[in-house]
């Protein structure tokens, strides 16, 4: 009891400090736009003065929207957490907000008639679809808290990839929309505040009606049914209210991440124990946190002239909270399962088909293309071949490196769903290269490779260090990686909105384009891939023993710690080199090892080589599709593969049982 009181006292002190900071920042910000002596006049007798108009129709509505949107997200997060019995469940971690944003972007481009009834109904459909997909994936694992959050975060990543494709094709229509979708609270009237206030009022009334049923849900399902409660109906109703709140926020201000996580967490820390106090406290804390975050965003705009969208700022600050709360999440998960034992290898006919495909795809990519007159076949000696072959070789080398990196990380972690992209290694490599581009604009390709390697090593080391706290349990390790990817993605998003002079290079690197690949880069990519084969030969025994589990590997004489560090260094180097070509989110490192096993390549050496061939071929095929599908426009190969790899990861999760 004493500990709980101390915790509540610290929470009360924290709330007081946040409230004081919010008030101070708000009054200081308002005073910079309009002297305080004119505030009342601007409200009651506004003149056609620009400063007064901005104050009345810009600053004050933005203040109201920050409070209302924060309250809506806090209430939504509290509902999700209570109904799903999962303190990490909220609109960001369940993919709800990302699905709503994707639906709005799609409707804006291809079905604008759907917006005639209001953007809210479009975002609600997207929010319900994304949330339903995450719940369906986790259902086969009995809605395991970790499985649910992992599914939701990956659903959000897939929605982000699809949104990236829309931006690529329709950037002239969607650039402003996606800037707004990053969570900009800027207002030019009271319409957004009025819409949020109406939604929040209806949702608040629904929550009042649900209070007693939600209290019954604190029992287990059997106990609640024994009292006559319609458990399924209560859950569906509460989930619908939570999704509607998140959809309303997206429809009016864009995607604002992690307020629904931080608000209820702060309320629980302050001592909220009953459903009513959790819901009210979550809403109040969410309003306070988003209000303060938006004031910080406006302060940054006043100091630097560039105002970051508030949604990116909350993602950057909120994702670390996910890492802090993760170890406290109780979940009955099995220990990491040993890798599947080696069985009968690939048959000769299957090997023949495999080899034929590996040869046919690069040949097709080299010779077949589209031009102004349609499809045509390039013959030897055609000048266009001098432009195509560096792209093909670069794509193959990068895909091969990711395939090998994925095989190694899956073996060393005994986790078939691990990959450089899911664990955040690719994002770390991209962050390292981006940092070098900003600090040393004249850095060459070798410098970028070194910086990407450093970023990959740092991220991998952090994931593995955090993984030791829960004995490298598969789902917790994956969730840690996805959380780090979210943090890095938010930081990179701020860089992309900064207007940096080398923004074109950064965008090309993030998207994963081979458009400007040179013969030198192609040769370097191939040399690194061949070097990876040598490293695989040296690591084959260790990879085989890691597949049996760390205790068995240690008993058979493998120095587990040194072996793990060696594999991690190799994975980081391969991922760093590949990320400079494919971008941070391609999922080749996930798909290629699985495809190799399905072809019958099960021993570490055979699986690694086959995964390299499959990964390289996938990237070459993606590069060919990217340059022909929307000719004359170019689609980055990394983005093409991510559209297939993300759903494949969700399918893998859907197949896994508890």
Automatic annotation (TrEMBL):
Membrane topology: Multi-pass membrane protein
Primary location: membrane
Matches recorded under Gene3D superfamilies: ABC transporter involved in vitamin B12 uptake, BtuC
Cross-referenced CDD domains: TM_ABC_iron-siderophores_like
Pfam family, one: FecCD
InterPro entries found in the cross-reference section: ABC_BtuC-like, ABC_transptr_permease_BtuC
Subcellular compartments: Cell membrane
Listed transmembrane segments: 12-31, 63-81, 93-113, 119-139, 146-169, 189-211, 279-300, 347-369, 389-410, 422-442, 448-466, 478-497, 517-538, 543-560, 566-592, 604-625, 631-654
Superkingdom field: Bacteria
Keywords: Cell membrane, Membrane, Transmembrane, Transmembrane helix, Transport
Similarity section: Belongs to the binding-protein-dependent transport system permease family. FecCD subfamily.
NCBIfam families according to UniProt: PRK10577.1-2 (NF007866)
Name of the protein in its database record: Fe(3+)-hydroxamate ABC transporter permease FhuB
Gene (name only): fhuB
